[in-house]
Amino acid sequence: MTKDEQIIRAAAGLFLAQGYGGTSMDAIAREAGVAKQTLYSRFNNKNGLFSAIIRHSCAAAFEGLPAAGDPPGLPEYLTQFGERMLGILFGGEALNLYRLVVAEAPRFPELGQIYYEQGPQSTIRGLTNGLSAYGITRVEARLAAEQFLGLLTGHLLTRALLNADGAPSSREKAVYVREAVTSIFKARALSDI
Predict the structure, then answer these.
(1) For the segment 102-116, what is each residue's pLDDT rounded down to a tens digit?
(2) Which listed CATH number (1.10.357.10, 3.40.640.10, 3.30.390.30, 3.40.50.1820) goes with 65-188?
(3) Residue 107 needs a FRET pair 20 to 30 A away by CA distance; which of 41, 63, 70, 187 works?
């Protein structure tokens, strides 16, 4: 594990346990086993560190996916992307980070902005690029990416955030991915691609 990964892991754990406002850079430095100066030299401030946590989490969504435009075709690309997204969202700390941001954003509006830019907006940008590689116009690709992600998470995310019936099962996730791919093809008339 790199020094940055060590710091990110320690900071994420503290943010989740104590909240954003309740976590100091001193505490993060102690938990990570680094000097406070190291934190500031690598991440500038607490906002920069939180931003790095979100970027790190979002980058995982694109790791291991086939390059967009390469075989397999678009349905397979979307299916793999959807499976990866739901696996990340419901398989680790991503859901808890989302809860943290929603709870802390009224007191720390910049936190919501960081999360949106580094999380959902970054994911939409990446998926838009992927869809564009299949010959979809940029405007259509952006809208399709937004719609696909909405279909993918929809009620599953609401239910999980409210702890109603817990995280979705593997079967539920597979159904949501399959239906999101089918729906986006029907809605966007992508069946000829």
Answers:
(1) 888 898 888 888 889
(2) 1.10.357.10
(3) 41
